[in-house]
């Protein structure tokens, strides 16, 4: 198949540091290319891919401090994709809802993976206006606020199996990885670690939008048990997660997926997560970690973490969250969309119990429309 992958421009594909959506686009794109598909990636010019790259901006917008309006480059990208739409069998968007008005009537099959939270009033109104646009969710929980949407599937994120190193022996510290923000609750992670008496390594970025929260909890990072590392790259992440005793995921929001959970599992590292959002879908309580409801339960889970088999965590990752499985799921959806388009372009008529393509009926003796 000839497939277009349309990525956000905020980060490169793959991102240099933080950037969950762009990483998933990268893993998916590379798996599709490896499976023999002809893939074109619309992304920033500093992206690295084995697909054909269609660069829109010279570098990721988050790294380009001269960009004043990030919406404008995305509009330019939509125009580029629209003008070349006829070259593809399917177009896969990862850019939210920005393209909806332009591609609603596009003759090329297209699908949109929504990567964020969907419990937003304005988003609900928008999706109601575009019920004809095919959507993919990244967890069943994610779609609950708009369960009536035009969902064609749920595809869990996946990672390349060699990306993370399985380490059978646990380390002596806890890990926190992600963003420092109110919904990720690094303050809660610190409380858990301190009460459990275990060191905590915090690898996280601080967005401008979360600067106020960061200033409010910054003093907590000075605790002798806490080591603040900042943003980390893939190699550093592999070492951080793989050498940890457990990953703390003490979220306080409706998490759409939680990529860091499967990153930890890929290393064999169990997860202690609060029961919000997609956590019960991704985790298996008592098998790949513990799902908890309070700080007290999380502290107790730290004490019991040795009950979790690190080999079982890795096995669960390979079985449920590989990039190969993710690509396979999407290929199935692409095929369904292409077949639906084919049927729409060539509707069939049932004549004497037999199906005929409508445009060919007049060519069949004794079965022309004039005799029907």
UniProtKB/TrEMBL annotation:
Keywords per UniProt: Transferase
Protein name: Glycosyl transferase group 1
Domain (Glycosyl transferase family) ranges: 173-307
GO molecular function, one term: glycosyltransferase activity
Leader sequence residues: none
InterPro entries from the UniProt entry: Glyco_trans_1, Glyco_trans_4-like_N, Glycosyltransferase_grp1
Pfam families on file: Glyco_transf_4, Glycos_transf_1
Domain Glycosyltransferase subfamily 4-like N-terminal: 18-119
């Amino acid at each position: 198949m000839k497939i277009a992958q349309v990525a956000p421009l905020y980060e490169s594909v793959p991102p240099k540091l933080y950037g969950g959506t762009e990483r998933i686009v990268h893993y998916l794109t590379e798996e599709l290319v490896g499976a023999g598909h002809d893939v074109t990636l619309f992304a920033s010019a500093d992206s690295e891919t084995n697909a054909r790259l269609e660069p829109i901006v010279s570098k990721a917008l988050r790294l380009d401090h001269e960009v004043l309006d990030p919406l404008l480059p995305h509009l330019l990208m939509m125009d580029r994709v629209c003008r070349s739409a006829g070259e593809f069998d399917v177009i896969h968007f990862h850019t939210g809802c920005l393209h909806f008005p332009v591609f609603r009537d596009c003759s090329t099959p297209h699908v949109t993976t929504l990567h964020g939270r969907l419990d937003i009033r304005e988003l609900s109104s928008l999706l109601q206006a575009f019920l004809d646009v095919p959507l993919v969710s990244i967890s069943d929980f994610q779609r609950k606020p708009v369960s009536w949407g035009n969902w064609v599937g749920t595809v869990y994120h996946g990672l390349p199996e060699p990306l993370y190193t399985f380490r059978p022996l646990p380390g002596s510290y806890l890990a926190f990885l992600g963003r420092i923000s109110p919904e990720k609750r690094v303050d809660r992670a610190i409380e858990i670690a301190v009460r459990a008496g275990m060191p905590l390594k915090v690898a996280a970025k601080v967005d401008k939008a979360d600067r106020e929260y960061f200033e409010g909890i910054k003093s907590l990072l000075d605790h002798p048990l806490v080591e603040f590392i900042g943003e980390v790259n893939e190699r550093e992440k592999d070492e951080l997660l793989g050498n940890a005793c457990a990953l703390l995921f003490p979220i306080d929001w409706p998490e759409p997926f939680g990529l860091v959970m499967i990153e930890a599992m890929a290393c064999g590292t169990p997860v202690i997560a609060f029961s919000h959002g997609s956590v019960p879908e991704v985790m298996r309580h008592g098998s790949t970690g513990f799902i908890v409801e309070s700080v007290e339960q999380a502290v107790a889970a730290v004490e019991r973490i040795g009950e979790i088999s690190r080999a079982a965590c890795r096995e669960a990752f390979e079985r449920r969250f590989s990039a190969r499985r993710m690509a396979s799921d999407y290929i199935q959806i692409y095929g369904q969309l292409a077949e639906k388009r084919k049927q729409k372009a060539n509707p069939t008529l049932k004549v004497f119990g037999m199906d005929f393509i409508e445009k060919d009926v007049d060519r069949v003796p004794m079965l022309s429309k004039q005799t029907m």
